[in-house]
Each structure stands twice: as structure tokens, then as C-alpha cells.
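Deliverable D5.2: sample structural annotation.
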Amino acid sequence: MMLNRRHIRVKVMQTMYAFKGSESDDFSKDQKFLLFSIDNMYNLYLLLISLIIEVQKRAESNLVKKQNKHLATKEDIDPNRKFVNNEVFKILLNNLDLKDKLDLYDVKNWELDSEYVDVIFKAITASELYKNYMETNTSSFKEDKEFLVDVFKEIIAPNEKLYEYLEDKNLTWLDDLPTVNTTILKLLRKVKLSTSENHFTPRLYKDSEDKQFAIDLFRKTLLNRTAINKEIELKTQNWDSDRIANVDYVLLQMAICEVKSFPSIPAKVTINEYLEIAKEYSTPKSSVFINGILDKLVKEYTEAGNLNKIGRGLM
């Protein structure tokens, strides 16, 4: 599973922020965009996983070129094949489930943009990590795995040229990158020689409920926007509405909707989630502002008996 609920909330926030219609409009197109934006995260995952595979292929072709050189050295003819024979590379290369997914999503970027494979390959082979790894000719599975984990964490994930490439291809990918990188690292760390075929093809959503949560949060927030905005206005009478950041307004709309319309989510969880999102996506003072308003509203709902939460510890 790649997505958590916070990431779903961020995706809904981004779609809400871009929405220019009113609650009476047909927003099926925007809902479609929301789901497409979430699904597109899987493209990013496949793109980065396929980059690892392409680096191995690039290393293999590099060895062949050296062997066929007119004045090949002894080392060119009989090279250290430890890197190209890395067991985790082999698992990725031979994974039919992953190959099917790459075909299904038509991931062919590196055929067209092979210079980025070269950039990563050169960065790896120039590193101390690589130098230390290649001091011997053989390795254990554990060493192979730890080496690739370090390569991804220290060389691939933070590469600036790759970052710029992804930004050019799809702006929303920059928000997805931390989640996707974390997923890949987790999968690389957990891989075993006996790993199942679907190890490198994780599910995007934990379950169908999470996908429905994305749709419901988006629709319910939009459908109740007028009533929610009135509640926000009552609580921000001392604030100049023009000075409230647009992102804060959207986050407040979503948080109030979640508190009122999602009985199984504890109010505390909702407040904490939106405070964390505000810290990351809005102004330095936003989380204090949002917390103050949500805290007051939850107290009022509780006193009036309008906080319809089900289950234990859901206040």
C-alpha cells in the first residue's frame, strides 16, 4: 500500500484549491481529475522503479562496449561483474508482475530520455559507495540489498537533475515524491530471495474504503461549502477575510466537513492531520489559526450534542 490518508487529504486539498465553480455545478470532471491525480502517483512509482532496472541494463551494455574495444585491457575483457549481477537487480529484471505493470502503464520514458539513466549511472559509479562495494568480486544477498538501498537513498532519490526532470514532466509529482521514495525504500529493504511476484507491485490504496474516502471528502466538502463558509465567517469576524490564506480556507472547509460528516474518524485525528498539512503547505502561522477555529467548533458541537462520532475514544 502506497497511499496513506494524509496524502489523500493533500490530493483533495489540491483539487479543491483549483476548483473554481460553485456547489451547484457539476463537478464530475474535478472528481475525475482528483482520481487521475492520485492514480498518476503509481506512474511515478513505476517510473522510478524502472529507472533502477535501466541503470543495470546501462551497466551491462557498458561492460559489453569495453570488451569489444579495439584495445581492450585485461580488466575490460574480464571485468568485475558484481554490480550487474546484484541479486536485487535480477529480482527486478525477472519480475513478470512488474513487467506487466510497466507495459500496462506504458512506461517508456527512459527509452526517450536515456541521458537521465546516464546521469544516474555516472553518479553511482563515481561514488564512494560503489568503490567500496566493488572492492570484492562476490557478495551476499544482504550486501547486495544494502548497497541498492543506499544507492537509492543517497544517489537516486536526492538527484537534482532527476528532480528537475520529474518537475517538468508533472508538477504534482513533486508532492508525491516523498511518499513514492519511501515506498521504494521500504520494498527494497524488505525484499528477499524468495520474494513473491507482487512484492514490487504494491497497491495504491490500502482498500476500497480509502478510495471512497477521497471521493466522499471532496464531494461532501463541495456540497456543504455554503454552510461551512458561514461557520468559518462566524469564527473569523475579527480577521480580514482577504488576509486569510486561500489554502487555510480550503483546509478549514475540509476539516469542518470531516468533523461533521465522517462519524468514524476521531475529531482529534482530523484536527492533527489538518494542522500537519497546514505546516507543510501554508504560512508559518496557519496551524495556530486553524487549530484555534477547529478547537472552538469541536467544543461547540460537543456541548450542543452535534458531534456524531461512533466508537470509543472518538471525541
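Annotation notes: The chain has a mean pLDDT of 91. The CA atoms of residues 2 and 204 lie 5 Å apart.
The annotation will be released with the project's public dataset once the embargo ends.
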